[in-house]
Fold this protein.
Amino acid sequence: MKGSDELVNIALLYVSLSFLCIGGTIPLIPDMHRFFVDTRGLMTTTEFAGYIALAQVAPGPNILYIALFGYHVAGIAGALTALGAISVVPFILTVCVTKMFARLQANPWREIVLRGLAPVTVGLMFAGCMLLIRGLPDWRAWALAAVAFVVFMLTKLHPLWMIGAGAIAGVALKM
């Protein structure tokens, strides 16, 4: 019964969060952290950050960490439940909003709404980044994160090169 209870909890979490998937799932990281780490104690902040990092370097959509959270709690069934629950509502809303926005092409409120959503999405993404930073284990990880940030902001180096360099640095520094 505990397994099915966890599946229901995962489904309820992600269906409720799916209404907030503006700009993708990254802005939802604080709420997911609150559920999996702070409230339920299902994983540590380091595990949480590790799953996000793993999903970001894997090929495919960047929402794979949602499946990893579900898998951590309830195996394959948890992964499938999490992905299904986070996807259905945004799909339906996207279809409906796209039709509505097409009809409101000339309406000035359309642009006003979009301009209001953008900074909120950025703020939520920043909050997620701050939570992930707390999961960095020591000064070496902080330094590596800072170097990656600076390199990304100052160069046109492809992120895959930084990911590869980070993996090598992790091995070299025995992180």
